[in-house]
Amino acid sequence: MTAAPTPRMRPVDRLLVLDDVGPTRRDRIRPETRRAYLYLAPATLVVGGLLVWPAIRTVVDSLTIGCRGVCLGNFTDAWSDPLARRALLRTLAWAVAVPVVLTAVGYLLAVVSRRVRRAGVLTVLLVAPMALPMLATAVAFRLLYDPDPSRGLVTALTSRLIGVDAPQALGPGLVTFAMMSAFVWAYLGLSVVVFRRVLDAIPSQQVSMIMAETGRRREVYRWLYWPILRRVAALLVGLAGLFSARSFDLLLALVPGSSQPAGEVLALHVWRYGAGPTAGPAAALSVLWFAVLALTVVLPLISFRAQWRMPPVDVTVWDRHLPARYSGLRHRLAQALCVAAIVLWLIPALLLVFASLHADATLAAHGLSGALSLASFGEVLGAGGMLGNYLGTGLFALLVAVLVVAFAGPAAYALGWLRPPGRGALLTVVVVCATVPVQAITIPLVQTLGAARLSGTGQAFVLAHLALGIPLTTALLYGAFGSLSPEQMRQAAIHHGAEAAGPGRATLTQVGPNLFAAGVLQFVQVWNDVAVGLLFAPPQLSPIGLSLLGQLRYYTTGTGHVAAATVLFSVVPLVAVMVARKQIVRLLMAGVSGNWQAKPTKR
Amino acid sequence: MKRRTLLAAGAAATALPLTGCASGGHGLEVVCAWGGPELAAFRAVLAGFTASTGHPVRIVVANGNGVDAMLSARLAAGNRPDVAVFSEPSLITRYASDGHLVALPVGTFRGGLNDFWLSLAGLAGDNLYGCWLKVAHKSLLWYRQAALFPGRGEAPRLEQPPKTWDELVELVAHWPVRGQAPLAIGAADGWVLTDWFENVLASLTESDERGSEYGLLAAPHADWDVPLVHDSLRRLGQLWSLPGALPYGGARALLTPFDASVAQVFGEHRAGMLFEGDFVAPVVAGLHTGETPSYFSFPRVGNRPRPQIVGGDVAVLLRDSDAGRSLMSYLTTKQAAVPWADAGFLVAPYPGNQTIVYPEARLNQLADEINDPTAEVQFDLSDQLTGKLIGDDGKGSWLILSDFFRAVTGGRPVESAVREAVHQFNLATGVAR
Known about the structure:
heterodimer; A: mainly alpha; MetI-like fold; 72% helix; globular; disordered C terminus; B: alpha/beta; D-Maltodextrin-Binding Protein, domain 2; 2 domains; seven-stranded mixed β-sheet; four-stranded mixed β-sheet; 16 strands; disordered N terminus; SBP (chain B)
């Protein structure tokens, strides 16, 4: 990397120089600029037209609706509306609290998981909820927090502990806490797995050398663990856009109507107030929301520019750096924590499955203690058109996944491997686009697709998903392409023939698993979606998420079949993610460890 | 309101469109937001139309946000359907004034409707915009016969169901059945609360040369700071805040959706009575308790007439064609009404439909009540509101009423809660700032 260790270098850099025996990265011919732009063009067209343009329109709307010319009236109106102001502040609180909790608890559990045997069980359990639709999480937690003690586990426990007047988790006072707990349940696995992989990848040699050089444990934390912590935290903050958009499903499905204002975040607020007399202030709020999200992605970009390079991660080896011994107080403590986490993570899922094994009438009359039956599954599977809904949703999700990879793959190849001029700026745009939630650009997006005479068609549905999916997929694949070394490429080329035209077989061999993983993630995203379906599902298609949301209106008298439908809805993404889990982790790791420097160091 | 949303719910599988693919004739496209039994009945209606005229009809179900959202998008795209079904008459006014609707000669399409239903269907001079499909009765209190009037030698717990508001208050204050609270209210759904409010408003409303006070509230810039609104809210607040009125208190009622409140009465027997429309009966049937629910009409308030709140679905024509006009005129016939009645829905108020016999005696009674000349018949107000008062979860009139409910059941003095609610209504209409 650098020429020679200088006396003022950080200990970690010195070690890296010792470690850095791999080939240099920049020994290729000049970037093929024109080819790169060609590969970028299709993705740019879709994202530019259906994401960037509606976003610009939202900004323009916020400054012009209800004004003569340009004014800030919509911003002051939004701020003076207590409902809107609280939604904005709550969104800010989410953007801070969720990454902080995920980072802190995730790091703790990752460390703990290294100190116990068979930590794989814990990891799988933690990761599985991430594959579930947010709607399924919401249903599981609605069961958990049901205000009726004969159905809600938490209510039953608290009313036994505190007394009859236990505060209701879904009431206005605790609703944000209830939503966040569901959120952490869903996404903690991400942070644990990423931390765990990174911790595993730190060569013990580095630790001992820093110890030898400085003689202080603290220095190890300072030079090795702290940068890792920062990077993963940054990754989680960078996903704040995704999280923000997802809190929408949670609020709609978990929170009873009367409590919704008390937990309302911008995702739902701008959705509800985006049209009609409140369109101007809603546009202003969308712009503020953009600003918050854009700020959150600046952090990871800065963090990823850090000089420290992560060692290559071998994800095929699981427990490679086992601690020396499994005994003592620390070990027992770790074991206890592990067991507690496993139990906590199992409860909502088991509750959901258990509820699905009751008939609706039994649940309504006797709660969860009623007789078990498969009637609810029978009812869901027997409903007319059920199979059509599943096939339709699956086919659309598959189509979108293939198209997103087809658009994002070449773009990522161009950015990560061909590296044309202006790449840094483009990359920033990609990452910012990846954070744009659909709710913030709803109205202009509907108008744009309407102007293209596509309203109410399958094309509009697919295009909207493409525009929203391409940026994040490009960013993830960029990490994968960016972390390829020329040596790897050369090796592949030798095996498969010359890398003659474009991203040939050689490249594909290297990044094939990454493309597959990105496709699976996109498939799951479309399968699990609610918001895009609400706006754009063509009349021929009733996405499963949407019909489940409709059934939630009958939640109490239909708990059994709602739970059964939720279980059936969740099986597909769960299986998909479990099948592709190795590739997915590798893809995410490439995102963390990839060379995110906007301007590569020239030699 | 929102029978539509409720029933759309059961419809896991509804949205695949029906293509009445008979050959020949002019193909029509109809947009609606129904699912479940309503969609099935509507299909039967349209199948009858296709059989008698030869025009095939394709139903498009508006997913998610409903007919208004779908129509706005399709009008923008220049891809308008032939016919759309609205549950909110306020939409007719808006779409008509934007020039999207085909005006029909009132002489041909009136179908004998009385002035009340005619004006709600969008009457403008000699023109009419809508034809009714079906209606709903929203002024009922439901209870278990076995709890109040057990029979078999046991003394009834009550002489007769309350006829006046004061008797209802008295009954709630001294509920005769041990081990249960008098009222179940699904206050998690704001529309349940607005339906309560509308009934009291309707009963207390007075009419003058400007029309009924109730009707005036539907205007975009209506002033809600009037004695009618204060009085109605005060009475509701007094009833809801009676000690022990609700099975688990107000905070719990606010987490109880409509269907759960039905279960509290007919499944768990934790509450004695439930207020809502004719659509309570199918929910009770879904509980499989084997019990048929009993009901009485919403009592009159003071010396005013009994309130009769109705809702309904109305079809409008968006694209002019002979086939489209013949579908609209078909909807006014008895032939078009029969599938609705068979499915247990109350048919459209055309005089020709009065001879229809429903499968259950209850429905015949309810149909008569809707046309009761001594009652104060009013259309669901929240379906007529516009602008910031349009209701949704946590929004508009729903939000104002659930805040009011939270205040009075949480111990806030009724008078101050009333003032706050009125202020919120006027903030939304722009009268107060």
